[in-house]
Design a protein that fits this description.
Blueprint: E1 7-13, H1 21-35, E2 39-45, H2 54-66, E3 72-76, H3 80-90, E4 95-99, H4 112-126, E5 131-134, H5 137-142, E6 153-155, E7 174-179, H6 188-196, E8 203-208, H7 215-228, E9 234-238, H8 242-250, E10 254-255
Parallel strand pairs: 1-2, 1-3, 3-4, 4-5, 5-6, 7-8, 7-10, 8-9
Helix pairs in contact: 2-3, 3-4, 6-7
């Protein structure tokens, strides 16, 4: 059996410190690879993703060109469109793996032209991946629509960390908790519409997560709260991590998430 390359190069779109499910998954994978003795070199690619322009594509091309022959490279799926124009030229000399959390073309709220553009970019990039890592068997089946044979796909399910049983809100008011970025796919508008129909019940909703990723969606959420008169029943504490997030979970009676695609 041939030895693995000395370094594994992880190609990530932008800062890996962002608090999203995808970046947490990537960071945990890198940590576990390093714990297992692999040397992982992290490359944080500058640019806009996934609808990237020429400057981002050029930066991606330079990154691929700088990798040594035979290098093992793992690219987060959000960056695949950036690598599409240059990947074919390097596919034979690199061991290229794609990590697809979910197809970019499946994102909620895309215009038809952008959906087609992303589908084509992902399909073309995935042709040059020797292997594809996904978080679920359902995602492995979905990639069949992109021409990816099931035998090329490795399922690596996300795990969970042990946690104590939540104490709950401790009052007659039901404490609801949603932890998600305020973006269309996470379904905050759907959740608010459902809770508006339950306004005769005593509940309070805490939505933890970044609100700045999609300003249009954030404006829609705030407008919906105002229109339904729910301002005193819904709070947005922003991104919470570590003990602060643990405390929110501990004080919750119910976790709620109306995501359209997860």
């Amino acid at each position: 059996m041939s030895a693995l390359p000395a370094d594994l190069h992880f190609l990530h779109p932008g800062p890996i410190t962002r608090r999203t499910g995808g970046t947490l998954y990537d960071r945990r994978m890198i940590d576990m690879l390093r714990a297992a003795g692999r040397s992982v070199v992290l490359h944080e690619l500058d640019g806009e993703f996934p609808l990237c322009g020429a400057a981002t594509e050029a930066a991606a091309a330079r990154l691929l060109a700088a990798l040594p022959d035979g290098a093992q490279a793992v690219a987060d799926g959000l960056a695949l469109p950036a690598f599409r124009p240059s990947l074919a030229a390097h596919a034979e000399r690199l061991q290229f793996t794609a990590l697809v959390h979910h197809p970019l073309a499946d994102e909620t709220g895309l215009a038809a032209a952008d959906r087609r553009r992303l589908f084509d970019a992902e399909r073309d990039a995935l042709r040059h991946a020797g292997a594809v890592v996904v978080p679920s068997a359902a995602m492995r089946r979905r990639l069949g629509d992109f021409g990816v044979a099931a035998g090329r796909v490795v399922v690596v399910p996300p795990g969970t960390d042990p946690a104590a049983r939540a104490a709950g809100g401790g009052s007659d008011r039901t404490a609801l908790l949603c932890v998600a970025s305020v973006t269309p796919r996470k379904g905050h508008l759907t959740l608010l519409a459902a809770l508006e129909r339950c306004r005769d019940l005593d509940w309070h909703l805490t939505c933890a997560g970044p609100t700045e990723l999609d300003p249009v969606c954030w404006d829609q959420v705030r407008a919906t709260i105002g229109a339904h008169g729910l301002g005193d029943r819904v709070s947005f504490p922003g991104t919470r991590t570590g003990r602060d997030l643990d405390a929110l979970y501990d004080r919750a009676d119910l976790f709620v998430l109306a995501t359209a695609y997860e």
